[in-house]
Amino acid sequence: MIGVALLVQSACWAADATGQQVRIHIVGNGWHAGLVLPAAGVNAQVPALRERFPQAQHYEIGWGDMGFYQAREVTVGLAAQALFASKGSLLHVVGLPGALTPHLRGADTAEICVSSEQHERMVRLIAQTFMHNAGGQLEPRGPGLYGDSQFYNAYGRYSLLNTCNRWTATVLQAAGVQISPRISLTAASVLRAARSHGS
């Protein structure tokens, strides 16, 4: 573990010759991989999140099928609907105050460091995924799954070939991670690419 940590730290120091670098975490739970990013950059692109999560230092953000994401109990029928007849997509945002260590402890994670320009590209893609109403406001869809969290209506149609992990892979690709969103359909494949980039 120490060796891996040192490799990631070295990669972070080398991320940007100007010294500007942003640490990003990828978090997996077996079937889904999401992103943990500093709140400041996201707030700059999506100011409404600052109002909703005033204490957040970081956000955990993921994208997925509406029915599957919000289900109290996951069933085969819901999974099939998500893959073949999705009724819509959502972004799940968790506001994380304070240190990240307690939130990440025990999770399957990877860590990368990106330049400020790469980080801005990531955040821009995330911001463009949020759906807005006619008044330009975000569209909340109820409380999230855990902690201080919220669902929001999102652009994109979930399907067998356009999964939550493909969305995460697309955002990582914008940050220079060598990953193919077309074949990154599992959380494991996303985490593996991120770890390869970090090392």
Structure description:
It contains nine helices and seven strands. The longest helix is centred in the middle third of the chain and has 14 residues, at 116-129. By secondary structure, it is α+β, with helices and mostly antiparallel strands. A seven-stranded antiparallel beta sheet has the order 5-1-2-3-4-7-6. Residues 1-11 and 13-17 have low confidence and may be disordered. The radius of gyration is 16 Å and the shape is globular. It has helices at residues 2-13, 39-45, 48-52, 66-70, 76-84, 101-104, 116-129, 164-174, 187-198, and strands at 21-28, 33-38, 58-65, 89-96, 108-115, 140-143, 149-154. Helix 7 runs antiparallel to helix 8 (164-174).
Can you give keywords for this protein?
199 residues; alpha+beta; seven-stranded antiparallel sheet; 9 helices; 7 strands; 40% helix; 24% strand; disordered N terminus
